[in-house]
Design brief:
The complex is a heterodimer of chains A (962) and B (127). In chain A, 72% of the residues lie in helices and 3% in strands. Among the domains of chain A are: 231 residues, no CATH class; 232 residues, no CATH class. Chain A is an all-alpha fold and 962 residues long. In chain A, a hairpin with a 4-residue loop joins strand 1 and strand 2. In chain A, the strands form two sheets. A two-stranded antiparallel sheet of chain A has the order 1-2. A two-stranded antiparallel sheet of chain A has the order 3-4. Chain A starts with a helix and ends in a 5-residue tail after the last helix. Chain B is mostly helical and 127 residues long. Chain B has a domain of 86 residues: Helix Hairpins (Orthogonal Bundle), CATH 1.10.287. Helix content of chain B is 57%, strand content 0%. Chain B is built from three helices and no strands. Chain B starts with a helix and ends in a 29-residue tail after the last helix. The relative contact order of chain B is 0.13. The chains are: A mainly alpha (962), B mainly alpha (127). Chains A and B meet through helix 28, helix 29, helix 30, helix 31 and helix 32 of A and helix 1, helix 2 and helix 3 of B.
């Protein structure tokens, strides 16, 4: 549990800085520090167990079906890295408090930093490779935010993008590699994978997995040729560089190589890929660093070089080399982080980090100079600092390792790397802090506040203490970490400053002398460098990215140029292609199920349907005719439902048909009545082809389905309908009972659709649409008698009748065809008839029903019916029923499903009426006045109507204001 | 009968697809409505065609048609109405705002001359 808290604390804590920045910068920094400190203490509490060799584990199942579980484990390696991340994080938080300017949003900075910290700790403590990959990607994302923190700097944004692109692609490669590993072993748990080293190395997939995983490690740890993103990421604020690029993010790749060492290392492939890459990176990085004038650029390339060194050591694949690698990770973190901080201080206090404009700062900022000098000497590998010891160990291992049978290549190149390393380290010291003082610093330099120099000072103390007393301070930690890396007993080793006169010492001495010579002849060597071809990584990267973007644009423009028709055509064509592919892969023959007969009348209906379909295609430009044809098709579909044993569907279809046609007619009132002929012949031919193929495909598909036998789960519904649901109409029982949750969702959708219509129309009553409506000129002649006498009278008579029919259909729904859906539609149509006969305005004043509330009540009643089942301690929407006998009436049944059906009924009526009533609001906005009378020409003489006649004239004259 | 239903579903689909590919909103809406007929019929037909055996439990009757596709299609019909209503109002609002019922901004242009910056083609009454 504690392990999970160590990972979770930074994530949870990331919420705090943004809130507490209101309480001031100190409060913000203190809170952030407290979060990290708590996590660090929780980690340190585990130290005794870790040093005793225990492996702590915690595990929750998350998605066990995918092999993804939340599992953390803590061994020496995880402890070491988590400690580095949290401890250095604490120093960085302190340093950043003083480094960030007043106008920098500090809350944001600390929030990003904690996110990053959490992701890093997650990587090093994950016991599931999939979980590890999630954290891995999180570090890429959060480091993107940190590197691009100064959003106003184009270099910052570009650097952040480049870092994200390179490390993100590496992450993808790593995902593939990890999945391969998981499939070889059969588990995604790291602890399990680590025990199957032999199996993995023997697998034919070992090389692909190795290459893919190394792709992730090398990009993250900036190994050649992916090293180019790291220097560009230096546009970040110094605390970010110090944190990400010395101790944490770039070490994630190293960490993973260490973690996977037992399963991947020790083969020839591993040696030649990893050790060679490391060696090349070490030499190239150091060479470039030597000539960088930007202090952070120099440190960035030196980081690349040192990461190469560690990579090479792990590449050797021997336990002693792994020990040296682990030790150098520790040492590098201490001196490099201190150096980045001093570079930040120099930049902060002098206003520049260009080595050419600096020099002689030692007297002006003595504390910074001391810290920087000590740390740089450690980086150069000068005794008695810690960098010396691990560099000696590296040279010693290199001297022992032949490369392709040649014993000289590795030691010679390693020494060359060391030479450059000495030269650039000394350059950092002598060209910045020593030499003559200048009088043209951008700002007057002086030492920074204690909060900025104490963190690097503390690190330098560690540099010295580890250097002087490695056996006491570092030995136990390095032992337990290296043991975790190799996963096997270690050879005897003893960390000491003095190893006697040996080959490594000689190589070190050569490195120091040649390095000093190089620095003295710096200008001459710089001319040599400028004469050599230097590929510019950023240009190449930009060209690649631009090329990819241009290609993507080409594809997108070809597929989807903003024309929805073209998009639709591609969509349908793709569906056809996919369908054809599936068709080609399966059986093509029709089934053998016996077919039903086709008597004369259905054939007649079929002819009508086909005729309507053909006509609608040819006459679709006449929109009124189109609506008539839609009506024909709908009617035939309804009749087909009756004929094919689906009375409920037929009732629903026919009532929906009425409502739909009324709706389309109302809309057509405002739309053009004709569709212009504007498609070219080739376009029409193409569409015709697509349509024909679609029809053919769908038709044959359903034909094949219908001619095959099948088994259905419906026997259960048929058997349980009466005893379990209390109704004999199985379709209705399924709707309100077996699949009531479905229906509940669907009435909510219907209600939302109605509300969306309301919102769309309400918006049309303002803005340009309203202007168009106010000056509307009808494009068709209007009927003189808009509310005819016959219709008014007939609908009045029909209203109670149709309401009665609605109630009847509703009540019988549970046992006979009918139910809430159909009853709702029937009642809505009954209301609509009144609206049609006398106009919406007239009818609305007499039927004051709030349809919004009706929808809400419908959904609420249905929901509460479902909740009612909880009172009986049963699941949501469980129904119950009983038989009641009232006097006069027959015995009848009362089911909770009926109350649910009431909800359905109310929602349907409310939705339909809301949609249509709102369309009428548009109409009233145009030219049509609200009738005060139910009909335009009343048979009642004017003098009998009395005063209402005047009112009617006034009403006709007044335009309704909405 | 199976052939009649299958060819009917196919024809309605074909007409729907053709109309959906038109350049004005109204035919597209009608096309969508036709497609929903076709889909509903399709789903219904997966329960196979049975005549005179409605799924209403009656004493003495042992054989019924499959009620499940019917229940699914019933709600689908109502939802299709909701969808058609929203789309038609959407088209109406777009027409009122823009003064054109064209699906694409460049109605007359074939895709080859897309992006020539021609203003939207107008149709019907405008303010």
């Amino acid at each position: 549990m504690t392990l999970a808290w160590i990972v979770l604390l930074p994530f949870l804590g990331a919420l705090l800085p943004g809130l507490l920045i209101r309480a001031g910068r100190d409060a913000c920094a203190l809170t952030t520090g407290a979060v990290t400190l708590t996590a660090l203490i929780l980690l340190l509490v585990q130290a005794p167990a870790v040093f005793a060799g225990e492996v702590l584990q915690v595990r929750w199942e998350w998605l066990p079906a995918l092999g993804l579980n939340v599992t953390f484990f803590l061994d020496g390696l995880g402890f070491f890295f988590a400690g580095l991340i949290l401890f250095i994080g604490l120093l960085i938080i302190t340093y950043a408090r003083y480094y960030l300017a007043k106008e920098d949003p500090m809350g944001q900075f600390y929030a990003y930093l904690l996110l990053f910290q959490g992701a890093m700790v997650g990587i090093v403590l994950s016991d599931n490779v999939l979980l590890l990959l999630i954290f891995w990607e999180l570090t890429s994302l959060s480091s993107f935010l940190l590197i691009g923190y100064w959003k106003h700097l184009p270099e910052g944004r570009q650097g952040a993008r480049m870092a994200l692109a390179v490390t993100g692609m590496g992450g993808l490669s790593m995902i593939a590699g990890m999945l391969i590993l998981g499939s070889i072993v059969g588990s995604y748990d790291l602890t399990v994978i680590l025990q199957h080293g032999e199996e993995i190395k023997a697998s034919p997939l070992y090389i692909p997995a190795l290459l893919l995983i190394l792709g992730g490690c090398f990009t993250k740890s900036a190994q050649f040729p992916f090293h180019f993103w790291l220097p560009h990421a230096m546009a970040a604020p110094a605390p970010v560089s110090a944190y990400l690029h010395s101790a944490t993010m770039v070490k994630a790749g190293i960490f993973l190589m260490a973690r996977m060492w037992p399963v991947l290392a020790g083969t020839d492939a591993w040696f030649y890929i990893v050790a060679t890459t490391g060696l090349v990176t070490m030499v190239v990085g150091a060479w470039i660093a030597l000539f960088k004038d930007d202090l952070k650029g120099l440190l960035a390339h030196s980081t690349v070089s040192h990461l190469g060194l560690v990579t090479m050591l792990f590449g050797f694949g021997t336990p002693m080399a792994a020990i040296a690698g682990v030790f150098h990770i520790l040492n590098h973190a201490t001196f490099k982080c201190a150096l980045f901080m001093t570079a930040g201080i120099v930049d902060h206090e002098t206003g520049t980090r260009d080595a050419k404009r600096l020099g002689g700062l030692a007297a002006l900022m003595p504390i910074t100079a001391t810290i920087a000098t000590l740390a740089a000497f450690s980086m150069a590998g000068i005794p008695p600092f810690n960098g010396f010891i691990s560099k000696e160990m590296m040279l010693h291992e290199a001297a022992l390792t032949p490369w392709a049978g040649n014993p000289w290549i590795l030691p010679a190149l390693a020494t060359l790397g060391a030479v450059f390393s000495v030269a650039y380290s000394f350059r950092y010291v002598f060209h910045v802090f020593f030499g003559p003082q200048r009088d043209d610093y951008p700002h007057h330099p002086h030492d920074p506040p204690a909060g900025m120099y104490l963190p690097p000072a503390l690190l330098v103390v560690l540099v010295i203490v580890i250097g002087l007393l490695p056996g006491i301070v570092a030995q136990p930690l390095v032992t337990v970490v290296s043991g975790a890396v190799t996963g096997a007993p270690l050879p005897d080793f003893y960390l000491a400053l003095w190893h006697g006169f040996n080959l490594a010492l000689g190589m070190s001495a050569i490195a120091v002398f040649v390095g000093i010579f190089l620095l003295l002849r710096h200008a001459a060597f710089n001319r040599l460098r400028l004469a050599l071809p230097r590929p510019e990584a950023k240009t190449m990267f930009d060209a690649t990215v631009n090329g990819l973007a241009a290609f993507s644009n080409l594809v997108i423009d070809g597929l989807h140029n903003g024309s929805l028709r073209r998009y639709m055509a591609f969509f349908i064509a793709t569906t056809l292609v996919v369908g054809t592919a599936a068709f080609a892969g399966g059986e093509h023959l029709a089934g053998t199920r016996g077919m039903t007969e086709a008597p004369f009348v259905p054939v007649l209906g079929w002819l009508l349907l086909i005729g309507a379909c053909i006509s609608i295609v040819f006459f679709h430009r006449n929109r009124l005719l189109t609506l008539v044809l839609v009506g024909v098709i709908g009617l035939i579909v309804s009749i087909a439902f009756v004929y094919l044993s689906a009375p409920d569907l037929a009732l629903t279809q026919i009532s929906v048909e009425v409502v739909t046609v009324i709706l389309l007619l109302l809309a057509l009132n405002f739309l053009p009545k004709e569709t212009p002929r504007e498609s070219s012949v080739s376009r029409r031919a193409r569409d015709g082809l697509l349509a024909g193929l679609s029809g053919l495909g769908i038709g044959s598909l359903i034909f094949m389905v219908m001619t095959r036998d099948f088994s259905s789960i419906s026997d259960f519904h048929l058997a349980e309908s009466k005893p379990g649901g209390g109704g004999t109409n199985v379709v209705n029982v399924i709707l309100v009972d077996f699949r009531g949750f479905d229906t509940f969702g669907e009435i909510i959708v219907l209600g939302i659709a109605a509300l969306a219509i309301y919102a769309l129309i309400d918006g049309a009553l303002h803005g340009p649409a309203a202007k168009r409506l106010n000056s509307w000129i009808p494009d068709q002649e209007r009927a003189q008698d808009r509310h005819p006498l016959m219709m008014v009278v007939a609908t009045r008579v029909m209203l109670p009748l149709s309401l009665l029919v609605g109630i009847y259909i509703f009540l019988r729904g549970h046992n006979e065809p009918g139910g809430g859906f159909i009853a709702g539609l029937v009642v809505a149509i009954a209301f609509l008839m009144q609206y049609m006969a006398s106009g919406f305005g007239w009818a609305e004043r007499r039927m004051r029903i709030d349809y919004h509330a009706m929808i809400a009540w419908g959904v609420l009643i249905a929901g509460l019916t479902g909740v009612g089942a909880w009172l009986a301690s049963r699941p949501f929407l469980t129904s119950d029923f009983t038989y009641v006998k009232l006097p006069i009436l027959e015995e009848f049944e009362l089911a909770t499903a009926m109350s649910f059906d009431v909800g359905v009924f109310l929602t349907v009526v409310g939705s339909v009426m809301l949609a249509l009533a709102n369309l009428s609001r548009l109409a009233r906005r145009t030219e049509e006045p609200v009738s005060a009378e139910p009909m335009d020409f009343s048979p009642v003489p004017d003098d009998e109507a009395g005063s209402s006649g005047d009112a009617s004239k006034a009403g006709v004259a007044a335009k309704e204001s909405v | 009968m199976e052939f009649l239903v299958a060819s009917g579903v196919g024809s309605v689909t074909a007409a729907g697809v053709y109309l959906v590919l038109r350049g004005r909103t109204f035919p597209v809406i009608v096309g969508l409505a036709l497609l929903s007929y076709a889909v509903n019929l399709f789903l219904f037909a997966t329960g196979r065609l049975v005549i005179d055996q409605p799924p209403v439990i009656t004493d003495g009757v042992t054989s019924y048609t499959d009620p499940l596709p019917q229940a699914l299609v019933l709600t689908a019909i109502v939802i299709s109405f909701g969808m058609t209503a929203v789309v038609v109002v959407l088209a109406l609002r777009a027409y009122l705002e823009a003064g054109s019922d064209a699906v694409d901004t460049n109605v007359d242009a074939e895709p080859e001359d897309a992006g020539d910056g021609r203003p939207a083609g107008g149709g019907g009454a405008s303010a």
